[in-house]
Amino acid sequence: MKKIYITTFVLSAFFFTGCADDYLDVQQTETISTNDTELYNNDAGASQFVTAIYNKFLNWDMTSFGWIGLSSITSDDADKGSSPGDTGTDKDVLDALTYNASNPSAESTFIANYDGINRCNQALAILPKLDKADANLRSRLAGEAKFLRAFMYFTLVKCYGGVPIVDHVPVPSSESDRVMQLTRKTAADVYAFIEKDLNDAIATLPEKGAYSSNERSRASKGATYALLAKVSLYQKKWRQVIDNCNKVTGYSLVSDYASMYKATGKFDSESIFEIYAQGAVPAKGIEGYSNTQGARGTGGWGWGFNTPSQSLVNAYEPGDVRKAATIIFRGQTLYDGRVVPNTVENERYNYKAYSSAYTDAWETDVDIKYLRYAEVLLMKAEASNELGQTSVAIPLLNQVRNRAGLGNTGASSQADVRTAIWKERRVEMAFEHDRFFDLVRTGQAKAAFAIDGKTFTEGKNELFPIPASFLNQAKGLSSQNPGY
């Protein structure tokens, strides 16, 4: 009999597949029979299945140490940090781009996203059966599940290229479902699947303003258009980038850049989609996210990993307010009066991971803003410039620069504006988990890593390795990425 796994806090929302392919399985704490879904056949019960998906983003393996390693420490924005002898399991090899197919961070990120995708598939399978829940609510919740599934597949395709597309809850006895779970599709197939999910979600999701104050973290129509624009950006579908950016309405740049990364800046006018972390008792935040990046050593409050590189420091122009909002320097006084003593081990730390109220807690109130209106402006600028509409791109770029306290760009040619936009993305979105992937998609990686003292091997380091544990289970149904 199939089971639904739940915890005492919220539904984990997984079906246990019952097969040997354990990369898709999860540890259950309590089970109920699917025959008992009547217990959840109401509005609150229906919502729980999708709340469980959002809850996944608070997990250590999904959004914390391993993900920080893949998306940030690998990039030229950050160094491993911490103590020289503390490898952080594998953060030293990620920093040096010398990881292999047994890399723990690549494996945990792969597994965590499939865990989340299973939650999405669970919700999409159960919601139609909850006929006592409001039909419009169920439709919206299905849209949220598809947005979140698309978000996770976007992470996977950026990291690994083509991956298995698991589009429904697998049946344990089904050979075709076993093959589905273990067979890599092409990157083009994955992108097409993402686009379909997002277009389905657009049809059912409301605008941001339609949500109540306690539902601000839920996916909206604007978030879906913004993510679809970003998915198009990675495929160089320039016209689609512009069309989707134009549909992201009701948002604006905040006047104070630094405010976005404080507790008072949650869900501000610029925020399109962010992972909400409460911090208060009972703790509900991203497990270890702030702590692993906090200042290390005497007078510090964390592990000290993912430290801003000298290359990033050098990227800021004089007068750019984003530098002081992004980087904590040893010896400085923070916005809340905390003094960072000269006794901490590293010269610099990630300010965007800092929590004033829960500084040394394991789960803090630090959110991750995955989609912001500034990025929408920069995506539209990049696409416009690539289509030869450089005169349209420049004012969009200048909006972001002016908010940062900088004057208008001096770039005017298409080539120079392209470089200016790429540089602006770096300093605007530093430590927001985009830099490594931006370097890869724009072809800047080899040169940028060389400046930072790292060797980027073209034809290999564009993608992370498919976990060896998965390939062992696939038994020939899938193959490894080149170079591993």
Model description:
By secondary structure, the chain is mainly α. The chain is built from 19 helices and nine strands. The strands form four sheets. A three-stranded antiparallel β-sheet has the order 2-1-3. It has a two-stranded antiparallel ribbon with strand order 4-6. Strand 1 (3-6) and strand 2 (11-15) form a beta hairpin. Helix 3 packs across helix 5, helix 5 (104-126) packs antiparallel against helix 6 (135-160) and helix 6 runs antiparallel to helix 8. The radius of gyration is 22 Å and the shape is globular. It starts with a strand and ends in a 10-residue tail after the last helix. 50% of the residues are buried. The model is unreliable at 1-33 (pLDDT under 50).
Please give a quick description of this structure:
With 484 residues, this protein is mainly α. A hairpin with a 4-residue loop joins strand 1 and strand 2.
Shape: globular
Low-pLDDT stretches? 1-33
Encode the helix/strand succession as letters.
Answer: EEEHHHEHHHHHHHEHEHHEEEHHHHHH
Strand content: 5-15%
Calculate the mean pLDDT score and round it. 92
Largest sheet: 3 strands, antiparallel
Structural class: mainly alpha
Helix content: 40-55%
Task: Give the terminus-to-terminus CA distance.
Answer: 40 Å
What's the total helix number? 19
Number of strands: 9
Helices, strands, pairings?
Elements: E1 3-6, E2 11-15, E3 31-33, H1 43-56, H2 60-63, H3 65-73, E4 78-81, H4 91-96, H5 104-126, H6 135-160, H7 175-182, H8 187-202, H9 221-234, H10 238-246, E5 271-275, H11 289-293, E6 305-308, H12 310-315, H13 321-326, E7 327-329, E8 348-350, E9 368-372, H14 373-386, H15 390-403, H16 414-428, H17 435-442, H18 445-451, H19 468-474
Antiparallel strand pairs: 1-2, 1-3, 4-6, 5-9, 7-8
